[in-house]
Amino acid sequence: MTNNTIIRFEQVTKQYDDDPPVLKEVSFEIERGKFYTLLGPSGCGKTTILRLIAGFVEPSLGKVIINGKVVNDVPANKRQVNTVFQDYALFPHLNVFENVAFGLRIKKMKNNEVDQKVKEALRFVNLEGYENREIREMSGGQRQRVAIARAIVNEPEVILLDEPLSALDLKLRTEMQYELRELQRRLGITFIFVTHDQEEALAMSDEIFVLNNGKIEQSGTPTDIYDEPINRFVADFIGESNIVPGVMIKDLSVQFAGKTFDCVDGGLNPNEAVEIVIRPEDLEITKPDLGKLRVRVDTQLFRGVHYEISCYDQDGNEWLVHSTKKARVGEEIGLHFDPEAIHVMRHGETEEEFDKRLEAYEEGNYEK
Amino acid sequence: MKSNSRNLYLIPYIIWIGLFVVTPILLVLYYSFFDIEGHFTIDNYKKFFTPVYLKMIFNSFWYAFLITLFSLIIAYPTAYLLTKTKHKQLWLLLIILPSWINLLLKAYAFIGIFGTYGAANSFLEVMGIGSKQLLFTDFSFIFVSVYIFLPFMILPIFNALDELNPSLIDASNDLGASPWTTFRRVIFPLTLDGVKSGCQVVFIPALSLFMLTRLIAGNRVITLGTAIEQHFLVTQDWGMGSTIAVFLIIAMVLIMVLTGKRKRGIL
Ligand SMILES: Nc1ncnc2c1ncn2[C@@H]1O[C@H](COP(=O)(O)OP(=O)(O)O)[C@@H](O)[C@H]1O
Ligand SMILES: [Mg+2]
Questions:
Q1: pLDDT (tens digit, 9 = 90+) per residue, A326-342?
Q2: Mapping DSSP to helix (H, G, I), strand (E, B) and coil, where does residue A170 land?
Q3: Overall number of domains in chain B
Q4: Which residues, judged by CB distance below 6 Å to any ligand atom, belong to the binding site of ligand 1?
Q5: Is the keyword Transmembrane in the record (chain B) (predicted)?
Q6: Is residue B205 part of a domain?
Q7: Half-sphere exposure for B114 (CA within 13 Å, toward CB)
């Protein structure tokens, strides 16, 4: 644990009644001043993690540590953390000003100070002049900003945001992504942001936790996770990918689709069965004889920036290609890719094991 | 064309309202201008503002106020606890159930319980307090009335609490509010409409209670309701009875208007 750590989960399990656990021995660390994203499908436990940090629920097992202190029993109103709720949870009987002022009034702050801080917070979220509006008079995007202002005005150390953008339309959503990221940089507060949208997570985060079924599957920077997905779930969930079975012949050599290819992975047992991931944008269309793979085009969709082309090889594996070049349905084409584009995944490998193998392999290479 | 056919559907309702709402009110208004011999007069209204009737008005309002107050004090925490239970709809049903039993039946049951040799006095004896005159007291009148009206107070408050978005309570805690502050600043203000409708449905009928005043309070409590009953059934002074009824109707409408729902909330 470094000095910069602000939140730590130690083997946290959360179980409601006799249902199967919602979180299973989850451990992670959150550092000060970074933008974190919890990414995962609906029902995987993202909100539960936020509720554990905020103090709305207690862990069944394990420790939640904030600023070096175990806070399992500390109630929500005594924690230096503020939440932007999924449905915003703005108080409908209070106007915009009083909503934002709520936390300050609880602290019995003087009126002129409240006035100044609320105005400042509203300026921060571009809502100057909306003080006297009722909540029902505000649009979805504006409500969301009020919710953010209500959180930041208390100057917490951590802000938790539960899918704050999911209710907005696409254009507003993209705008708010920029604004949120910019806001986090200006404030320098730790943001823990929840989303089920992988593009949003990749665009906004310093660090992503990919969750599935109450477990963290992988954590890392957006590029780490995109380039080195640790298993089929992560590869599938983050962006589109071609996943085919293969065999690791030896270090730097892998066999799939009936051929042997050079690759950049190693540290596995010889002839170990593995899964191969190649991203659709890493596949290049060429003439049938020039490609490393020979496939037949099955369908083609125009996606605006690129064509999404679905092809099949002789073994019946599907290959999805993103290409700016057009193909013809039914045509035979070649697919070219670089050794770096091949990503090898071991069956059932956890993140820890993956890191260990990488380390061991690299050390081994230096010795040679 | 369209609006015509839509108006056709309204006809049964208009007939219904005309027959059972408008006509009776007009009849009551009409009768209030006749004395006991059937001569047109406004003496009834003059009589209404004499000390005898003013005292009665005060009594009615005072007891209705007490009944409403105690119902509210009991109903709010009860409704709150109900929303926290696991099978809340079932518990609610159990609490609402007694209100389906005839009022007179309940009144007679209480006569038995509160009577000199009733269960309540046996209990007091066992406790060493000794038997007391319970029946025909203000206490028993208010106790029984509160018992009878309680479900009507609980229901709207329960609904208001049940509709309250739970994340608002989380939000309040999140912003540093203690449970009590959360209640004062978020929960109560947002369930005020439920409290208001509860008070309406208790206060207004309580204003014109009459059977209980005789059975439980032994006619010690004379309210406007009792007076109406006496005028129509005993003194046969329909004019005076109607005058009181007109006053009650005006009072009820005023209460409804004053405690009416304001528009609030998101959407
Ligand atoms: N209060 C609760 N009681 C019982 N089960 C719950 C409760 N809250 C959440 N769950 C369950 O926990 C799981 C994870 O929920 P949640 O953390 O909200 O998922 P996410 O936010 O990732 O969609 C879900 O299966 C949900 O049904
Ligand atoms: Mg959620």
A1: 889 999 999 999 999 99
A2: helix
A3: 1
A4: A 16, 19, 22, 40, 42-48
A5: yes
A6: yes
A7: 22
